[in-house]
Specification:
The protein is of the alpha+beta class and 428 residues long. The chain is 28% helix and 37% strand. It has helices at residues 41-56, 60-77, 88-99, 104-113, 121-137, 159-169, 182-194, 290-295, 299-308, 332-338, and strands at 2-9, 13-14, 22-27, 30-36, 84-86, 142-152, 171-176, 210-223, 234-239, 245-261, 265-271, 277-284, 310-320, 322-330, 358-371, 375-388, 400-402, 407-413, 419-425. α6 links the parallel β6 (142-152) and β7 (171-176). The longest helix has 18 residues, at 60-77.
């Protein structure tokens, strides 16, 4: 039996003082290159209009399905005392490319796990095409999504499948000799460049009978709308989930933010420039445990939180500078637990639209995030391998978000509601 490998290179989130107007140029027969593009004032205006128009074409039910999958997956991966960080958008997009090649019960299991309900394939592909188009147009923030298909030239893959993934996911297609050790370097180089150097090496070798790698990479680069002043960053204690205490650099500011609080949590929205995408951070009050909060989370509860944020003119925010590198994480067992079983079984897998003897052996994901005074840098990768076979006035209430203990965070496209990244910091 032949193998299919799905690598999801989720994203790079990078906050610096110069983040806009950079794009990846993907070619059919070359590794991605990272270029800086200077748009005219009129082009910038047109891109903003296009981004907003494309947002209208991204349907609420599709976003809801993706976010349900995101929350369920994160809860499966969450562990006490471990820093977790993933790009669910990257993982679901890579699985959707694989979904295009599935049939029968394999197709149903992937659909059920991704909450695709009764959506037809054309609808799903159009939604991802619109999503990719929107993110390519947002000004002052780079969300660059790259897809690639690496095919072992010694095996045949259905041309219709290749054309579908190429046209809907803008996937580069590479036909390579998988017996040549240089192919490993070519794949790793593609991931390296597609994540702007944040993810250097996803694979060490190519196993025999591997027919194909499907790879998704997301690069995100943005600055805070309200940057933290470096002179306000001070050393302070962070109370780790295992009971230990770390002395870390804490960023501080008091500014106008949208904010939420109840008896159990405080939460703050930290927007990136232009307000299209934001980080939402949640910290529990008192003895409440952040992991219990996560385990109790649902898509509806999260929507209720998002809808309940209220603007305050002076919110005190204290949050650590941090860097988390998560992975390389094998998602195979997690996805099996979530209901995708046949895809990994060579006797049951049905990927006839790819190659009738293929099955999936591996889904690998890696993600990196760094948060500082200017912004955030993050990267993630996923690889799928296919083988053959309350009411108080602000004068009375002083809102504050103090993340001196474990906290949960989400990076979200506020116009469509799409969750790009999710993470929890348990220990620094």
């Amino acid at each position: 039996m032949k193998k299919i490998i799905l690598l999801v290179v989720s994203s790079c989130l990078f906050m610096t003082s110069c983040v806009s107007n950079t794009v990846f140029d993907t070619g059919k027969n070359k590794v991605n290159t990272y270029k800086k593009v200077n748009y005219s004032e009129n082009e910038v205006k047109q891109r903003k209009i296009q981004a907003k128009e494309l947002a209208k074409d991204i349907k609420e039910d599709f976003v809801s399905s993706n976010n349900k999958f995101a929350i369920k997956l994160f809860k499966e991966l969450n562990e006490e005392n471990i820093n977790v960080f993933i790009s669910p958008a990257s993982i679901s997009m890579a699985l959707s490319m694989l979904y295009n090649g599935s049939e029968g019960n394999t197709k149903k299991q992937i659909s059920d796990t991704l909450y695709y309900n009764n959506y037809d394939m054309k609808y799903i592909n159009e939604q991802y095409k619109n999503l990719m188009g929107r993110f390519s147009k947002i000004d002052n923030i780079d969300v660059i999504i790259s897809n690639s298909m690496w095919i072992n030239k010694h095996y045949e893959v259905n041309d219709d499948y290749i054309n579908t993934v190429n046209s809907n996911y803008n996937s580069a297609v590479y036909n390579e000799d998988f017996n040549d050790k240089k192919t490993v370097n070519k794949i790793n180089d593609w991931i390296d460049i597609s994540t702007n150097g944040l993810i250097k090496k996803m694979i060490n070798k190519i196993e025999p009978n591997t027919i194909m790698y499907l790879i998704n990479a997301i690069y995100f680069n943005a600055t805070w709308e309200n940057a933290f002043k470096e002179r306000a960053t001070k050393k302070d204690n962070f109370n780790n989930s295992d009971g230990s205490i770390s002395n870390v650099k804490m960023m501080n500011q008091k500014e106008g933010f949208t904010y939420y609080y109840d008896d159990e949590i405080n939460a703050v929205r930290l927007p990136y420039k232009d307000g299209e995408v934001s980080m939402y951070a949640f910290v529990t009050k008192g003895e409440n445990n952040i992991n219990e909060f996560i385990n109790d989370l649902s898509k509806n509860k999260l929507d209720d939180y998002f809808n309940s944020f209220k603007y305050y003119s002076n919110v005190r925010v204290k949050i650590p500078k941090f860097k988390v590198e998560y992975g390389i994480k094998e998602l195979k067992d997690v996805l099996i637990n979530m209901g995708i079983t046949d895809a990994f079984d060579p006797s049951l897998a049905n990927f006839e639209q790819i190659n009738r003897e293929s099955y999936t052996t591996s889904v690998k994901h890696k993600a990196v995030i760094e948060v500082d005074e200017k912004g955030t840098e993050a990267a993630a990768a996923t690889i799928i391998e296919e083988n053959t076979k309350s009411c108080q006035s602000e004068e009375e209430f002083k809102p504050e978000f103090i993340a001196d203990k474990p906290f949960f965070y989400i990076i979200r496209d506020d116009r469509t509601g799409t969750i790009l990244f999710m993470g929890v910091v348990n220990k620094l």
